Amino acid sequence: MKAKIRIAELARQHNFKNAYALQNALKCSPTMAARLWSGEFKQIGIETMEKLCDLFKCSYNDLFGYDVAPVAPVADKPKQKSGGSWHGKPGGSLAETLAEGNSGKGFNNSILEIVQSSSDNETLLSTEQVAERLGLKLSSIREHYNNGKLPFVKVGKKNKVRESDFIAFRDSRNLKKK
User: Fold this and answer.
1) What tens digit of pLDDT does each residue of 79-136 get?
2) Residues contacting residue 67 through CB under 8 Å, at least 6 positions apart
3) Same domain, 33 and 109
4) Alpha helices in the chain (DSSP H)
5) CA distance 147 to 135
6) Of 34, 68, 125, 160, which has fewest CB within 10 angstroms of its CB?
7) Residue-number span of the structural domain to which 21 is assigned
8) Of 116, 141, 163, which marks where a domain is finished?
C-alpha cells in the first residue's frame, strides 16, 4: 500500500479552489499552505492536523488515504525526531515515508495504524472529551491510561481514545456500579 495525502482533495470538496484559499482559512504562511496543498512537506504538527480536521469536519483518518498497489520495502529509514511533528528524509514526502514502512517513534506508529486501518473510521476522542463525557477529572483519566484500564493511542504528544474503547470502558464502569 502506498499512502497519500488527501488535503487538497478534501479542500476542493469544501470549495477551496487553491492553496491561497486554504492559507486564509487556516491562517498559516503561504509556504505552509502550498506544501499542505501539494502534499510535499517534511513535517506536520498535530495542531495543524487538528486545524485541518476542524476545517474539513473530518477525522485524522480522512487526511490520509492509500493506494492498494503493493510497495517494496526500502532498506534505509528516514531520520526522525520525537515530538508532535513528523521529520523525514530531506526532499521526501510523508506519503513516501509511510510507503517505505516507517515505524519510528518520531512519526508515531498510531498515525500509521490510523492510515492503514481504512475500515476503521472511528472517531478519536481527546483526554478532555473523555473526561467531560464521564464527568471525571483529567488526572483520573490519565490514571486509567496508566493502569491500563482505558486503552489509548499516542498522536504526536497527545493521548487519543478510540470511540469503541471509550464505549467499552464506560459500559464496564456502569456494570460495576449496578
Assistant:
1) 444 444 444 444 444 444 444 544 444 444 445 454 444 335 678 899 999 999 999 9
2) 1, 2, 4
3) yes
4) 7-13, 19-26, 30-38, 46-56, 60-63, 94-99, 109-116, 127-134, 138-146, 163-177
5) 19
6) 68
7) 2-116
8) 116
